[in-house]
Structure to design on (294 residues):
């Protein structure tokens, strides 16, 4: 009898209640499904109804994270209502001097990026008004091969500069990019000089040029036209630099300071003129253009 008694509780073993052992079902584990019509903030993972998130300009109301905005939507957010007219650069084509193939041929990657974004290149150029000021706006789309700067993208920006000079319009560029497009090699790096030449033409004509740096903005774009403007604005939390932080740490064998390469860090060190909330960008650009046009 003693052998059948629980030494801790004194109850006969048949009367003890044992929790059933849960055995996971075979096969792949089910994944949680996001509710339809919602989007998650990449900063805090809070979910928003898509329409409400779009009305908030893709900015999280909880943590303030500024989400990625496609080029056409960005131009619509900045331009006066009904004033946006896209420029036709359909004759601009990419070059493939290296016949680059990393498992997917470069021309195929271009075709996929065009289908994904609805753009022909990483730049979208348009005429518009901002606060009543005539503008040529050039917006980069990070969804197009990471907003990389290739020969066609460089040509689009150079033409935007020439259009601004020919029509006596100010130039506004929204820059978000991973840098020069590796698939084109030296042809992509040459676009830094091509775009810088375009900016020089705008400056020589005495026209204002304002750049807006959005997350992320790196490489040859940051090293050229993105920071050659009269005024450099940046969105909160935007990562801005030339090489990535991990690459710099590996090269210097030194620990980088907290917040390195963020818009706020660069503002504190004089590389950015102002960090502006997305909701205030349009009014800020309009005021600046009003000052320059006096």
């Amino acid at each position: 009898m003693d052998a059948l008694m629980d030494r801790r509780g004194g109850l006969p073993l048949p009367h003890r209640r044992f929790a059933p052992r849960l055995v996971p079902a075979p096969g792949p584990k089910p994944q949680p499904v996001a509710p339809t019509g919602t989007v998650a903030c990449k900063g805090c993972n809070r979910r928003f109804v898509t329409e409400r998130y779009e009305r908030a300009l893709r900015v999280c109301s909880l943590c303030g994270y500024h989400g990625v905005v496609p080029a056409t939507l960005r131009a619509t957010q900045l331009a006066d209502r009904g004033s946006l007219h896209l420029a036709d650069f359909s004759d601009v084509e990419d070059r493939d001097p290296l016949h680059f193939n990393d498992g997917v041929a470069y021309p195929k990657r271009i075709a996929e990026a065009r289908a994904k974004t609805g753009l022909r290149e990483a730049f979208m150029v348009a005429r518009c008004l901002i606060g009543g000021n005539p503008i040529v706006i050039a917006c980069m789309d990070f969804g197009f091969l990471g907003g990389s700067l290739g020969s066609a993208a460089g040509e689009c920006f150079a033409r935007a500069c020439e259009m601004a000079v020919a029509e006596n319009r100010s130039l506004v560029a929204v820059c978000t990019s991973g840098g020069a497009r590796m698939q084109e090699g030296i042809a992509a790096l040459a676009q830094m000089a091509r775009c810088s030449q375009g900016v020089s033409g705008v400056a020589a004509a005495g026209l204002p040029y304002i750049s807006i740096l959005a997350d992320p903005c790196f490489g040859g774009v940051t090293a050229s036209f993105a920071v050659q403007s009269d005024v450099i604005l940046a969105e909160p939390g935007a990562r801005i630099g030339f090489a990535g932080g991990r690459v710099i740490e590996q090269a210097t064998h030194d620990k980088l300071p907290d917040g390195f390469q963020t818009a706020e860090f660069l503002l504190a060190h004089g590389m950015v003129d102002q960090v502006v909330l997305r909701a205030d960008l349009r009014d800020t650009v309009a005021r600046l253009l009003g000052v320059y046009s006096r």
The chain has two domains: 19-65, 69-292. The beta strands are 38-40, 47-49, 85-86, 123-130, 133-140, 170-177, 209-217, 231-234, 274-275.
